Structures
1.
Amino acid sequence: MSDLTHVELLWHEKCIENRIRFGRATEERILDRNRRVLSFAPGSIFAFVRWMSNDFGTVVCRIDILRAVATGQRCSTVPYVKPGGESLLRLSGWPKVERVLQLIDAVEALGIDPADAAPDYWHHVHNRLSVNETPRAYTKSRHQAWLHRRRISP
């Protein structure tokens, strides 16, 4: 049995789009023209964006930032993600999803891969978004502190 977390990505124009916003996949399998599966190693952090619409407009807009888990570890179930993942952030609704995408862009603007950012940053972003506050920006010094902390504790 594989220790990888598998994410099924779908794309049907103007109907459904499942995509990875950031993360380092270890494997990719193309199923057909509209579907592929990306696999992530345990401990990898990735952002999974889901969007669906119908004739009346957007039905679902959601972002999940997850940490891939090893076989047998506890995890949250997420559609299209097998077996699931440790949920660092889960938001729905376009305004909140758009704000998280802007925060991801801001982390990338610092020259930091969002997959390498401190998991606690993603875990606490939703607290401020739910009360319409501006989340504290991720900074290079905050990132350096995370890297130092990661070195000294497993």
2.
Amino acid sequence: MTVTTPHSAYWEGVRDGLPFILVVAPFALLFGVVATEAGLNVWETLAFSVVVIAGAAQFTALQLMQENAPTVIVLASALAVNLRMAMYSASLTPHLGATPLWQRALAAYVMVDQSYACSILAYERNHDWTPRQKMAFYFGAVTPVIPVWYAMTVAGALIGSSMPAGLALDFAVPITFIAMIAPALRTLAHKAAAIASVVLALGFAFVPFNLGLIIAGIGGMMVGAQVELWMERRVRA
């Protein structure tokens, strides 16, 4: 029987996190390009990625900043987009809650969708791991991702700053999100939530500072939850 040490758990995490570079690299590159098109310089763009490390929230905040939205609206919108991180944290607490505070603080800073997905699956496979082993795997999973996020953000900013001013790439952002979301629409509840959010987003497009998107997001979740309950009742019946 192979004994898993924190060291080997770390390298197992690195191995599981490596494939996500294929997703993170182009997304960070796109953010760097769009950020410079919006008027940020290379260092400001890098600082944005270093401080936030959340692609969807960064794109949301960037768009609102371009529209001169109040700071509180920018922060609230970015927070709303990133609320899933709170659910991730609650899910990881039984596994990592016994580790030192500084490790949990660092884990919270580098938490991304990829690190959570890798880690929670690994914890389900290895029920005998200690909190130390679990944290080592977690940090291993983000090791390939975070440096690539920083580096490709800089690369995108450098590319974007050298592009002609008339070459707009704003269309790339919605296309990217469509490509990310479409494969996740597997159940009727998912599809109902997506359709409802699209309809509400269009219906509330007049609301200033893109607050209609928050309304659409909340409405979509409500519709999805109701459809899920309806499906469960049908199965029981």
